[in-house]
Design a protein that fits this description.
Length: 121
């Protein structure tokens, strides 16, 4: 079985910074991509940032220029550096990974438990 554990969520003032981490462990053959999603109260879950094993990145429009995603493939870990935080960034942030369990060409989506980020105005 596979689990993803996020860390780094906190309360921070507007304009501040946080760094989130997510480490995947368990029966992992490979991970093709990892990413961060967030969900605020009353809102749908949305993509924050994603990164492939090859290093290709993409960001949600609302965080471009402020957030940076990176990864350490050897450690099956993804990071999200969040700068210039705004109250609108307040949400539960979830880590996601597309995982292969073996050499069989099938991938499965796994989610972390989420970490709360609260930005005060």
């Amino acid at each position: 079985q596979v689990q993803l554990v996020e860390s780094g969520g906190d309360l921070v003032q507007a304009g501040g910074s946080l760094r989130l981490s997510c480490a995947a462990s368990g029966t992992i053959f490979s991970i093709s991509a990892m990413g961060w999603y967030r969900q605020a109260p009353g809102k749908q879950r949305e993509l924050v940032a994603g990164i492939t094993s090859g290093g290709t990145t993409n960001y949600g429009d609302s965080v471009k220029g402020r957030f940076t995603i990176s990864r350490d493939n050897a450690k099956n870990t993804v990071y999200l550096q969040m700068n210039s935080l705004k109250p609108e960034d307040t949400a539960v942030y979830y880590c996601n990974a597309n995982v292969r369990y073996s050499s069989r060409p099938y991938e499965y989506s796994h989610w972390g438990q989420g970490t709360q980020v609260t930005v005060s105005s």
